[in-house]
């Protein structure tokens, strides 16, 4: 009996070691580190070893309980995608700034309350930055992110849009819904590629004419749940051109066989059934 148990224990240990070895070989061969739903409280140290770190291109450790990133995250100098959604991160280390080849950084649904200035200042190749549903009350400037195409800061505690957003000249999608933001910066009017602007359930009460006039690609804007006056929005300079783009977008879908919902074409604002003011969207 004792011999059988000893053999089983030895076989199990050997299998674990073999699987770990095969996993590490795969990391080095493919550059992809997949660790979703692995019950981790930290990233494995092996990722940062001299033989693995330079090979890492894509790390996904979502749905774990990782509370912090080690300073050695800076050794992943060739990393292009880092996804750590649904973890327990509260802050980010300065060393993340050394991952200068990052294109995609997705950190949704953590508890992040601070992003170091140096991180966003250094990650100039970012195309997607998503920090939705964290605890951010402030953001560092994103002015250096000229290649950024998608930015999500929805579901935080921000009182203003990230500084420098109007200088993200490649930006196509901006989601800042579910924040206590009360102003849309007129500087966003410089974003000629912006297609989607979501400000749902914020405190925004108006849209600057610069946005309607300058964001010539804008076809989806949502102000549902905001204290806006639909009539005032419609009278804003540039709104008619925006509304025409919305109709054209949906018209193509209609001609292509798509269905239109019971609300008709959605131009992004709630309309009260009575009175001029817009009722909160629920």
UniProtKB/TrEMBL annotation:
<protein>
    <recommendedName>
        <fullName>Disease resistance R13L4/SHOC-2-like LRR domain-containing protein</fullName>
    </recommendedName>
</protein>
<dbReference type="GO" id="GO:0005930">
    <property type="term" value="C:axoneme"/>
</dbReference>
<keyword id="KW-0433">Leucine-rich repeat</keyword>
<dbReference type="InterPro" id="IPR050216">
    <property type="entry name" value="LRR_domain-containing"/>
</dbReference>
<dbReference type="InterPro" id="IPR032675">
    <property type="entry name" value="LRR_dom_sf"/>
</dbReference>
<dbReference type="Pfam" id="PF23598">
    <property type="entry name" value="LRR_14"/>
</dbReference>
<keyword id="KW-0677">Repeat</keyword>
<dbReference type="InterPro" id="IPR003591">
    <property type="entry name" value="Leu-rich_rpt_typical-subtyp"/>
</dbReference>
<dbReference type="InterPro" id="IPR055414">
    <property type="entry name" value="LRR_R13L4/SHOC2-like"/>
</dbReference>
<dbReference type="InterPro" id="IPR001611">
    <property type="entry name" value="Leu-rich_rpt"/>
</dbReference>
<feature type="domain" description="Disease resistance R13L4/SHOC-2-like LRR">
    <location>
        <begin position="96"/>
        <end position="202"/>
    </location>
</feature>
């Amino acid at each position: 009996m004792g011999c059988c148990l000893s053999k089983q224990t030895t076989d199990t240990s050997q299998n674990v070691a073999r699987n770990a070895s095969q996993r590490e070989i795969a990391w080095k061969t493919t550059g992809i580190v997949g660790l979703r739903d692995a019950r981790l409280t930290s990233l494995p140290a092996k990722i940062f070893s001299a033989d693995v770190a330079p090979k890492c291109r894509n790390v996904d450790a979502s749905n774990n309980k990782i509370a912090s990133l080690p300073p050695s995250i800076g050794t992943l100098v060739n990393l292009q995608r880092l996804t750590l959604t649904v973890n327990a991160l509260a802050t980010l280390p300065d060393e993340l700034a050394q991952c200068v080849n990052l294109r995609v950084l997705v950190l949704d649904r953590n508890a992040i309350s601070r992003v170091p200035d140096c991180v966003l200042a250094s990650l100039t190749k970012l195309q997607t930055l998503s920090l939705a549903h964290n605890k951010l009350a402030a953001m560092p400037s994103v002015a250096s992110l000229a290649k950024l195409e998608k930015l999500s800061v929805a579901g935080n505690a921000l009182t203003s849009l990230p500084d420098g957003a109007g200088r993200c000249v490649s930006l196509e999608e901006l989601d800042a819904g579910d924040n206590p933001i009360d102003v849309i910066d007129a500087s966003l009017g410089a974003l000629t590629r912006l297609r989607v602007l979501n400000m749902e359930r914020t405190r925004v009460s108006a849209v600057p004419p610069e946005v309607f006039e300058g964001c010539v690609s804008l076809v989806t804007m949502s102000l549902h749940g905001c204290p806006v006056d639909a009539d005032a929005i419609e009278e804003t300079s540039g709104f008619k051109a925006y509304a025409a783009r919305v109709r054209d977008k949906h018209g193509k879908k209609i001609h292509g066989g798509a269905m239109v919902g019971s609300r008709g074409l959605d131009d992004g604002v709630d309309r009260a059934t009575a009175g001029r003011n817009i009722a909160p969207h629920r």
